[in-house]
Amino acid sequence: MLKAPVIQKFYNELGKKGLSPKYIKNIHGVLHKAIEQAVLVEYTAKNYTSICKLPKVVEKEVVPLNEEEQERLFAALKGEEFEDLILVDIFTGLRCGELIGLTWDCIDFDNGIIHVKKQLAPPRKKGGGGKCYWGTLKNNKTRDVYPAQFVMDVLKHHKAVQAAQKLAAGSLWDEGDFPGLVFTHPNGYHYIQPTIWKEFQKILKKAGLAHHRVHDLRHTFAVNSLKAGDDVKTLQENMGHFSAAFTLDRYGHVTKEMKKASSERMQKLIDRMSI
To answer: Are 71 and 26 part of one and the same domain?
Structure first.
C-alpha cells in the first residue's frame, strides 16, 4: 500500500536526482488523482499524498525590458534573420513553442487575428533523441489574439520574404513534418527552441544589453499592455493564463505603479481646482 512514508521518500528521491520542484509537483498531481480514484472504488482507504510535503516552487522573477532596452533591441534587430520573429513575440506575448509552431492558416489577415491553437513541442527524449511534435497549449486553452496592425504588417512582410526564400531554395525547400510554418530556417525547416534562445542572446549582445530570457519578451508584452491601458481580464486572455487572478498576481507590481500614477494625476487635477 502507498502510505505517506513511501510516497514522501519517492518525492525526496526525485529531488535528489535533480528534478525541479515544479516537475515534482506535476508528478504529485498525477499520483494524487490516481490514488483519489482508488479511494473512490474502495481499493484503498486513504489518499496519503495529501499529507506529504512537496518542495517549494519558486517562480522565476519577471524581468521585462524597459523602454530604453526595447529601443536598443529594435535597433540591433534591423536586418537580422530573426527580426520579424522577435518583433511578433514582443508585441503578442506568444510563448516560444507557440511562436515557432505558428502556421499561416492561423493568421487571419482580413480580420487582424492570430489564432493560437497549438505549439511545436521539443522532443520527449532528452540527449538529442526523438523528434519535435505538435503539442497542446499550456492550460489547454486555445485563444484568439488581436494584435496591433504593426504586427500584421510584419507578418505580411515576412510572408513575402519566406516566399522569396522558397523560390530561391527550389527543390531544396524542406518543410519536413511541419508544413506551413510562419517562421522557419531559410530552407523551410522548422526551428527548435534552443536555436531561438541562442540567437536571441547574440542579438542582445549586439545591442549591448544584459542577459534576458526569450520568455522575458512575453513579460515585456504584458507590461506594455497594462501601461497601454489593457485591463487584466483582456491581458489574461491574450496571454493564455488560466485565470485573471494569476495574471494580476504575476504583474501586480505594474498595476501598483499604474495606481500610483493615477493618484498623481488626480492630485494635479485637485490642485487646479478651487477647493
So the answer is: no
